[in-house]
Amino acid sequence: MLVVGLTGGIGAGKSTAAARFGELGAVVIDVDAIGREVLAPGGRAESGVVDAFGPGILGEDGHIDRGKVAAEVFGRADRLEALEAVSHPAINTELDSRLLELAEAGEVDVVVLDMAVLTESRLGQLESGRGYTQVVVVEAPEEVRLPRLLERGLTEEQARARMASQATDDQRRAIADHVIVNDGSPEDLASAVDQVWAELTKA
Question: Which of 28, 60, 184, 195 has the most CB atoms lying inside 10 A of its own CB?
Fold first, then answer.
């Protein structure tokens, strides 16, 4: 079973590429969604994050308010590191469990880990050896990404801040096995994903 790490900067088209990989037959695991799950009530990281950040991050229901956590860590490297020190091991534990289940079922050839912070973290790098062994990067020029983010409702200042907070294209390319440039039409992106899929699955 081949496990692929898929990443890209905000607005580059990573999620659209992930959906196409799913259409082609991959099992796609949304690692960002697991990140939300581990902070949810009863999640693997809930108590540890509350211990690290205190009751100020709790909502009226007594559970973690993700908006408060985001406000606490955005632009503050030390606080972000504190969050990741608790949440990332929890995410990897859940990932490992899901990958083991898929491997034991023996019905899946390719798993794609859709993850925003692959370059900046050790997410998906599992001690069991079940983590990703190939990296696919989706990228697009800033002048293409910015209008996409504005369409999502971000202000230009917010969009530029989000892009600046992530890894650079050069940093992503340095660890990439395959790079998809998404600066054209949706059909162009689908075609590029199809080509990478053919390379990943060739005998």
Answer: 28
